[in-house]
Amino acid sequence: MIITTTDHVEGRRVIEYLGVVTGEAIIGVNVFRDFFAGIRDIVGGRSGGYQNALKDAREHAMDDMRDAAKRLGADAVVGVDLDYEVLGKENGMLMVSINGTAIKLG
C-alpha cells in the first residue's frame, strides 16, 4: 500500500475517496529508561531507549492506519500527518497519532 504525505500519487489518478483513516499508539515512560536517559543526557549522546520506544510507537500507529485503509479497500493513503503528544498527569505517557485519506487509484 502506498502511504504518502502528499495529496496525490504521482502518475496515478484518484478514482474514489474512501474516508479518513487513523492510527494511534500510547506508550508509558519506563522509570529505568528515564534514569538511564538522564545519565546519557549528563554525559552526552542520544537516548537509544527513547528512540526505540518512539520508533515502535510510530510503526504501531502506522500499522493501525494501514489496516484501517485495507478494510476500506484502499490502494493508498494520502495527506498523511504524524503527531506526537505528551499525556498524563505527570507527563508519563506519549501518544503517537497518524491520519490520512484512504483512496482508490485508477
Automatic annotation (TrEMBL):
Family annotation (Gene3D superfamilies): Hypothetical protein apc22750. Chain B
Pfam family, one: YbjQ_1
InterPro entries, alphabetized: UPF0145_dom_sf, UPF0145_YbjQ-like
Domain of life, per lineage: Bacteria
PANTHER family reported in the protein's UniProt record: UPF0145 PROTEIN YBJQ (PTHR34068)
Family label: Belongs to the UPF0145 family.
Protein name in UniProt: UPF0145 protein N825_06680
Gene source species: Skermanella stibiiresistens SB22
